[in-house]
Write a structure and sequence with these properties.
Chain A is an alpha/beta fold. In chain A, about 35% of the residues lie in helices and about 30% in strands. In chain A, a hairpin with a 2-residue loop joins strand 1 and strand 2. Chain B contains 40 helices and 25 strands. In chain B, helix 26 packs antiparallel against helix 34 and helix 35 packs parallel to helix 39. Classes of the chains: A alpha/beta (about 250), B alpha+beta (about 1150). Chains A and B meet through helix 1, helix 2 and helix 3 of A and helix 25, helix 36, helix 37 and helix 40 of B.
Chain lengths: ~250, ~1150
């Protein structure tokens, strides 16, 4: 196992006994209470639960965006909580992709400029970064909108740009927090179709936080949380079909 | 300081107190009506402490500048006034010989004149005494250790009458009597005592006509005008070297001048400081006596006039500092406006929610006003106190400079000035806060709640020619309100400056009327006091109309049409009004008013109005405002670029004038402008440059993208650093404008100052010589070489040439003018002087091919002369119009521009009345006389002075040295002084004199530039406010950037570079505009024509680099904090942030 994470581990993510507590004024809130979870490589997992159950916190802790208080988190075999802040940043730039509910595109940059950001941050030469960004936009069928600013795109198009940005650096894992939360049902279905297609074609691992059961059922497995704990893991119909196909 | 240009400061204080009371009254009214608004406003103050600190720092600048200006002006006025009282002591009137009454045998005052005046005033109950005194300059030496003072004042006083004046005061404050001055006893002043190291009982020697006379020190007295202020050698500055006082009889015995009186002084009853009110009437009585008796006397000043002059000096300093601080004040006002825009942006959604649940726009305005006033009260106090600190520093620096001239300046605190500054700062800030609050409360509820972008305001949705009419009327509505408020302000101010006895009535009456008027407005406005209800309301309304008939009708109409006006105002209406005002101002300034301020500002307004009108009718704002801004910049920078290619580009400097000439309506006279043009040009050019940058920001980004491709890893950071400022036009534009304004003003000041210093204090000022030796008129030196050799000084080892000037003070007038004769210095030069002198001439008469040819002609023809440039320059602001002055006639610009024949001047010997004529064939360049006051003269052959003017008054010698280095010339000068100690010569290295003058000049310049640089605080505070705000606004984006791989350092760098971009752009714009304007000013034909000086234009690179370095350095430091704060944002929390 090495720091770049090219390990022989079959799991994209392994979390053992993860605890996360928030301290605000005189109040302590234990958002995660010893969560254990494994996500095999190429899997697509949905994390569900009511508001305040800790699903976004879990995503943030598993992706290294937030530190944990107890437990171990291995991403592609790497214990990310032992990395320095800079190393975590480098790791995210090279090995992870993020899709947020509110897109978080930079409004002053065009679509292609937003997409190529992670590559430029990783040190990829500008020309190569631009070529790969265009290819990523092709994947999400937005090539002709490459030069447009986010304000000139629809909600669905913006989310596609976000997905393209998440994929451009060929990440080992894509974290998506309510990727369809701000979209209407038609756009939401299109986005999930895109994500599912990417998962099938590229064997990209996806971890998706959602409150929408319909979205969750597009994944292979649903992890249900309540009060900071995983209370149930169920395989979806798609997951069962996939497992059967693999024999 | 009791008055500011004639207006009593107490009037200012009362008016400001009332305004502040009104402001607090308004706040109290808000609190009474709706205390929740005040509570909300005040709680916002503690919401973000760092932001609050920055707001207070930004708001305080206007108060700081006014406070520093008042404290400095007050200190100067107070110090000068004190100096006057110390110098004059009991003397209330000072009378000297009237040069206009010179006639053969009457060339000075005598004892008979003193007696005559004394007798005439014998029954005057206000007069305590009349006395005459004499003064001259002699060398004084402590023979024990050879310490010497070459120019001590040697004063003779009448013991019988001088004691009433109280001018002889010992160091411990005891009044001494002149009756003790018997035999060889003398009082010696403190400065002389220190200078030559003698005290009570010691002996010292003076030399008069080369004869030593010994004295014993009776006591040491304080220096004042009586004891130590005699005129120095002709043209020299009066030095502060102290003096000695003997009895008048003893003085006459030594000098042989039996009847001479130099000054007659009159003292009134009362003390030193409490008799000013008697001066004016006494002066009139004395002048009546002079007119009736024909005595050759002239009252040169009274103590009251000098004290008033001191007040004026104080007022000038206040005004000077406020004018120089205007850029900073303007930047400060912009910062307040910007801060409220930022505050409104920060609270947009909560304000939208508040409006949605029922709050009115006025409530939001009141809430912001309450918050703004909380900042205001604190910031005004901070500013006023810091202003005192700045004034203390300024006064300390000025004290070092002025002490060279014998003026003691020490800090004086005046509570009234402090309170005025505090109140004035508060009022100015309140006005800005009120306007900004009204503006900030103007939001669309839905856009605010949903955080949608504001709809662009530039294009009008109903743009058409038909809707333009109502728009113009709607704007007229706003202007009518402004006019009403200004009218009330002027009336109120006039009311409270009518005079002391009516203050009480004024306050009561004015306050009552104002209250009635405001109450009347409430009567007709729907709301709490419902209009037209009940007989009381009707009666109140009728009274209101009756009392304020036209005003009430206007106000009532404006209130009724408020809704219609608000709906119909748009950019088109404003554009039409700007067009009208611009045209009127241009016409008035260029034609009847002849005022450059109105002329140029009107043209600028006109150009911008045309762009606005084009946008109203559908033009794209970008090209419209780009063209307009470039036109405005080009207009203000004319005659650039033509002046770079053409020698005389004056035809290109005023396109409006060219157009008027084409149409045959050109005005017949030049427009006049003054220091206010500096301010107007800065505002206009900054506004234009900022508009250009803001509207072409996206094009600039394209250029940046080309650059960033080659920068690799920095690319994403640089791209975000530049994209964000360019996307926020208003805040970036305002911050750019702040930096540009202040840097522009600093660059112009620094460039103009350094070029003038270089011109007037360059090598030309030496006139080809290295050392100046001024002889003492009491101990003349016919031959310097001989005198030095007799004193065993090795002339040949040190000196390569000695030129001699003999000075006389005849009466002169231009032969063909109607002017009276006036005394002017005439210098007779010898052959050596003419051959060594390097006198550049600004103009030569026809027939003389070079400057050297003119000097040679002088030597060959005793009827020829050259004159200094001050005789052909325009009279300056300090000239006394009542004083006869010798003028050649034509101006410098006229003499430079065309061929001219020698100009005859008539010279008259005041002793004999004999007249002769000289012909002026050349005019010296003005820089030649920068450090040699003795060259402010007519120059002719030595023989003329010797033969026609009785040998002259005194000699001065100009030497060239073998060692031309500064240290070499200083060594020669001090060697000559030491050798000729007993003759009382003053020897000066001219290079040292240039360097000393330059150092003084630079010290003043740095003082003003430092003061103006205070405005950078505003720009830096603006950057800080924006930076902190953007960190808050972009928290979620910061989280996203960190999520996709930005390290903390990259986030910090992005924010730091963002602020740096704005700072560098603003500083760069200020530098370019300031450099261009300075170049224009210093190479303009008008300046060269007026001063006769051609400047070898140079940019003061070191000084500019220092300005840029400090401006950028301070900005960088300020933005480090928010940049670090951005880097420390927790990723997960930021992603949740809404």
């Amino acid at each position: 196992m090495n720091q770049t994470g090219d390990s022989a581990s079959p799991f994209a993510v392994e979390a053992v006994g993860v605890v996360k507590t928030y301290h605000t004024d005189n109040v302590q809130v234990q958002a995660l209470r010893g969560v254990t979870l494994q996500v095999p490589k190429g899997d697509m997992v949905a994390i569900m639960g009511p508001s305040g159950c800790g699903k976004t916190t879990l995503l943030n802790c598993l992706s290294g965006l937030d530190a944990i208080d107890e437990g171990v988190v291995l991403v592609d075999g790497v214990d990310i909580n032992t990395l320095s802040d800079d190393d975590k940043s480098h790791y995210r730039a090279r090995r992870m992709g993020f899709v947020f509910q509110f897109y978080n595109l930079l409004p002053v940059l065009s679509a292609v400029e937003n997409v190529e950001m992670p590559l430029l941050v990783s040190g990829v030469p500008a020309k190569e970064a631009r070529e790969r960004a265009i290819q990523a936009l092709e994947l999400v069928h937005l090539t002709e909108w490459a030069g447009h600013k986010p304000a000139q795109l629809s909600g669905g198009q913006r989310q596609r740009v976000t997905i393209a940005r998440a994929l451009v650096n060929e990440p080992a894992i894509v974290w998506a927090d309510e990727p369809t939360g701000d979209l209407d049902s038609k756009n939401a279905d299109e986005i999930m179709e895109l994500i599912v297609g990417l998962n099938e074609r590229n064997q990209q691992t996806f971890v998706i936080v959602t409150h929408d059961l319909h979205i969750a059922q597009s994944t292979n497995r649903i992890v249900n949380m309540l009060d900071g704990r995983i209370v149930e893991e169920t395989q979806t119909e798609r997951g069962r079909a996939g497992a059967a196909a693999r024999g | 300081m009791d008055n500011l240009f004639g207006v009593p400061l107490s009037s200012f204080l009362i008016a400001l107190t009332l305004l502040v009371a009104l402001i607090f009254g308004f706040l109290g009214w808000i609190w009474w009506r709706n205390p929740l608004l005040v509570k909300m406003g005040l709680r916002n103050v503690t919401r973000r402490k760092t932001q609050t600190t920055l707001i207070v720092v930004g708001m305080m600048l206007a108060t700081l500048i006014v406070s520093a200006a008042f404290a400095t002006g007050d200190t100067v006025g107070y110090s000068v006034t004190n100096q006057i009282y110390r110098q004059l002591q009991g003397a209330d009137l000072v009378i000297t010989f009237d040069q206009n009454k010179v006639s053969p045998g009457v060339t000075e005052l005598t004892d008979a004149d003193v007696v005559g005046l004394r007798d005439a005033l014998a029954d005057d109950k206000d007069v305590e005494g009349v006395s005459g005194l004499v003064q001259t300059r002699v060398p004084a030496i402590n023979t024990a250790d050879q310490r010497a003072e070459p120019l001590a004042t040697f004063a003779g006083v009448d013991p019988a009458s001088i004691d009433a004046f109280g001018g002889l005061v010992s160091l411990d404050g005891k009044e001494l009597s002149a009756t003790a001055l018997t035999g060889d006893r003398a009082y010696i002043t403190d400065r002389l005592s220190e200078g030559i190291g003698v005290g009570r009982g010691d002996r010292f020697t003076i030399f008069y006509k080369n004869q030593p006379i010994e004295f014993v020190v009776e006591d040491v007295v304080r220096d004042n005008a009586m004891t130590s202020s005699a005129d120095g050698p002709a043209g020299e500055n009066a030095s502060t070297t102290g003096g000695l006082v003997v009895s008048l009889d003893r003085w006459r015995e030594i000098t042989g001048e039996q009847d001479r009186i130099d000054l007659i002084v009159v003292t009134t009853v009362g003390g030193v400081r409490d008799s000013l009110h008697l001066n004016k009437a006494l002066k009139e009585r004395v002048e009546t006596y002079i007119d009736e008796s024909g005595a050759p006397m002239d009252v040169i000043f009274t103590k009251e006039e000098l004290v008033n002059l001191a007040e004026l000096v104080g007022s000038v300093f206040v005004t000077l500092f406020i004018v120089f601080g205007l850029f900073s004040i303007a930047a400060g006002v912009m910062l307040i406006f910007l801060m409220f825009i930022m505050l409104a942006a920060e609270r947009r959604s909560e304000m939208g929610m508040a409006r949605a649940v029922g709050m009115k726009r006025m409530h939001l305005t009141e809430m912001f006003v309450a918050e703004g006033m909380a900042y205001n009260i604190g910031s005004a106090m901070v500013g006023a106190l810091l202003g005192l600190a700045v004034a203390f520093l300024l006064v300390w620096v000025m004290g070092q400079i002025f002490s060279e001239f014998g003026l003691d300046i020490s800090f004086h605190f005046n509570l009234r000035g402090f309170v005025i500054a505090y109140f004035l700062g508060m009022v100015v800030t309140f006005a800005t806060v009120a306007f900004s609050s009204w503006r900030a409360a103007n939001l669309n509820i839905v856009e605010a709640i949903r955080d949608l972008p504001d709809q662009p305001a530039l294009r009008s949705r109903t743009a058409s020619l038909r809707s333009l009419g109502p728009a113009v009327l709607a704007v007229t509505w706003t202007l009518a309100w402004i006019g009403l408020i200004v009218f009330w302000g002027v009336m109120a101010f006039t009311f409270f400056t009518v005079g002391l006895t009516t203050y009480g009535l004024g306050m009561l009456g004015g306050g009552l009327l104002l209250g009635l008027y405001v109450f009347g407005i409430r009567l007709v406005q729907p709301g709490r006091f419902s209009s037209m209800r009940g007989w009381r309301a009707w009666l109140g309304w009728a009274l209101w109309v009756a009392l304020f008939f036209p005003l009430s009708l206007i106000t009532w109409s404006l209130l009724l049409t408020r809704g219609w006006a608000t709906r119909n105002q748009n950019i088109g209406g404003w554009a039409v009004w700007m067009l009208i005002i611009g045209l009127l101002a241009t016409w008035w300034g260029g034609w009847p008013g002849s005022m450059a301020f109105a002329y140029t500002a009107g043209t600028t307004l006109f150009i911008l109005a045309v762009a606005m009108l084009a946008v109203y009718f559908g033009a794209d704002p970008r090209p419209a405002f780009t063209i307009a801004s470039l036109l405005v910049l080009w207009y203000w920078l004319l005659p650039l670029p033509f002046s770079l290619f053409v020698n005389d580009a004056s035809n290109f400097s005023d396109p409006v004038l060219r157009l008027a000439e084409l149409l045959g309506v050109a005005p017949g006279k030049e427009v006049q402008g003054n220091i206010e043009m500096f301010f107007v040009s800065g505002i206009a050019m900054t506004a234009a440059a900022t508009l250009f940058v803001v509207f072409n920001a996206d094009r600039l980004l394209g250029a940046v993208n080309l650059v960033t491709r080659v920068l690799g890893g920095l690319t994403p950071v640089l791209r975000t650093a530049i994209s964000y400022p360019l996307a926020s036009k208003v805040r970036t534009g305002m911050t750019l404008a702040m930096f540009t304004l202040v840097v522009f003003s600093l660059v112009v000041m620094a460039t103009i100052n350094s070029n003038f210093t270089q011109l007037f204090l360059g090598q030309d000022a030496k006139g080809g010589f290295d050392v100046r030796v001024s002889a003492n008129s009491s101990n003349r030196i016919p031959d310097l070489r001989l005198a030095l050799e007799e004193a065993n000084y090795d002339v040949d080892a040190n000196i390569s040439g000695i030129g001699t000037l003999i000075a006389a003070s005849p009466q002169v007038k231009a032969t063909n003018s109607e002017d009276d004769f006036a005394t002017y210095l005439l210098q007779g030069m010898d052959q050596k002087f003419a051959s060594l002198a390097d006198f550049p001439l600004v103009a030569r008469a026809t027939g003389y091919e070079s400057d050297k040819a003119v000097l040679e002609a002088l030597l060959n023809d005793p009827t020829l002369a050259v004159v200094d440039e001050s005789r052909t320059a325009a009279p300056d602001a300090f000239s006394d119009p009542g004083q006869t002055d010798f003028r050649l006639g034509p101006r410098t610009a006229d003499l430079k521009g065309q061929p001219w024949d020698p100009i005859p001047v008539t010279v008259r010997d005041p002793d004999t009345g004999k007249e002769f004529e000289l012909r002026v064939i050349g005019v010296l360049e003005p820089q030649v006389t920068s450090i040699n006051g003795g060259w402010l003269a007519l120059f002719t052959q030595r023989s003329v002075v010797e033969q026609q003017l009785g040998g002259g008054d005194t000699e001065s010698f100009y030497l060239t040295t073998l060692d031309e280095s500064k240290s070499g010339t200083v060594k020669v000068a001090s060697g000559i002084e030491a050798a000729l100690l007993k003759k009382g010569v003053v020897a000066t290295s001219l290079q040292q004199a240039i360097d000393d003058s330059a150092a003084q000049s630079n010290a003043f310049q740095y003082l003003f530039e430092g003061f103006m640089g205070l405005g950078l605080i505003v720009g830096i505070a603006a950057l800080g406010v924006i930076a902190f705000r953007t960190v808050a606004e972009r928290r979620q984006q910061i989280g996203m950037l960190r999520a996709i791989g930005y390290t903390r350092r990259m986030v910090a760098l992005a924010f730091f570079m963002e602020s740096s971009f704005i700072a560098i752009a603003g500083i760069g714009m200020g530098l370019l505009l300031g450099a261009a304007l300075s170049y224009n000013l210093l190479t303009s034909p008008e300046l060269i024509g007026e001063t006769g000086a051609e400047i070898d234009f140079k940019f003061p690179l070191v000084r500019l680099l220092i300005i840029i370095g400090i401006a950028y350095g301070a900005s960088a430091l300020m933005t480090l904090i928010p940049a670090r704060s951005a880097s420390k944002v927790s990723v997960a929390e930021a992603l949740r942030y809404e």
